[in-house]
Design goal:
The protein is an alpha+beta fold and 408 residues long. It has 3 domains: 158 residues, Beta Barrel (At1g16640 B3 domain); 99 residues, Restriction Endonuclease (3-Layer(aba) Sandwich), CATH 3.40.91.80; 115 residues, Restriction Endonuclease (3-Layer(aba) Sandwich), CATH 3.40.91.80. Helices cover 32% and strands 16% of the residues. The chain is built from 11 helices and 12 strands. Strands 4-3-2-6-5-1-7 form a 7-stranded mixed β-sheet, sandwiched between helices. A 5-stranded mixed β-sheet has the order 8-9-10-11-12.
Amino acid sequence: MALADVGAWLDSCSREDAVWYVKRLAANDTQATKAHGAGPYIPKDFLFGVLPTLNRPDVKNPDVRFRLGVDSHGEQTLVRAIWYNNKLFGGTRNEARLTNFGGRSSALLDPQSTGSIAVFAFVTGGAEPSARVWVARSSDEEELIEDRVGPVEPGRWVVWSPSPQLRLNLLPAGIPARTDCSLSPAEIPAQWLANFPSGAELIRKAIELRPVKGLAVDARLLRRRECEYEIFRSVEAAVELPRITEGFTSIDEFVARAQTVLQRRKTRAGRSLELHTREILLEEGLEEGRAFSHGPESDPGRRPDFLFPSAEAYRNPAFPSSSLRMLAAKTTCKDRWRQILNEADRVPTKHLLTLQEGVSESQFREMTDAGVKLVVPKALHEAYPAAVRPGLMTLRDFLEEVRGLGRR
């Protein structure tokens, strides 16, 4: 199936014996970092489930070859799943990847696909393993995919099955299970079980559990956000699992509940980074209203996430444009960076805080030429091509730049 409509493709892959693995392609998945062993990372435990013969700890670097079609781009190839397990033989490596895609000619290894959502649909019931893949070609296609499986964030993955019994999988996806910020049922406030907590409430709880004010701002942002995610999923499980256990009286009732869960996940993902950033600005001594404005109207009908030093300074024609800054917070930026270009006309350079794990060199040049400056937590810089890294700012760099703008 080549160049099909993504909605029709998702429907065609909605088989009872299908399991989907969904992720955003990082620069280390594609060839954006020019890595010799480029190929999509897939957790070995997942691959062991869909390719049982790969689980051979007695063999060094066991592999399985199977047919895979990248239907979004009309590709068919015989790929290799390999478990690099030399850690069991005195080495250090213990991970699984898919290889043999044919280099950059494949949409999965094309640097331009960095940041795109990829859906791997594995069929588990056939005599021979097989998989079909869709690499999203636009933000519209990504939205349709996330309408099915929920938000797909950088560094995490989603395992989803069209089977109704597995559809509301409420286990944490994309990260190993952790308990340091997860709340037990007894720790969850009773009002949260009756009315699901807002994003601000979840973040306040994450700050309580992870104050770490002495930690550098870049690391603090990532740790807090991870903590908040764990809190969210533990509360979600406490709220939704009893309802799932009770069962549903109709398909419509089940679909409505599933949509509620997915929409709540998308809402949380959409504002999480922005709200965490506001808390860090306050912790770093920037006074809201004097050193920054959160969600102000800059120009009629336009609301950037943050203006520095304030919306009042922005609207004052006597205040120099050279002392104004704007910061947008978007978890992913591959296509969404263009949305910020008109958010503050007086600010020539638009700063964009993102958690995306890499962009291609040509994508980065396009952003730079448009006046967009990427702000990326320091720990994620290694995920970007070497040629791009010198043009990145850390969150700490940005905060140092905006301190004292109002006093200039």
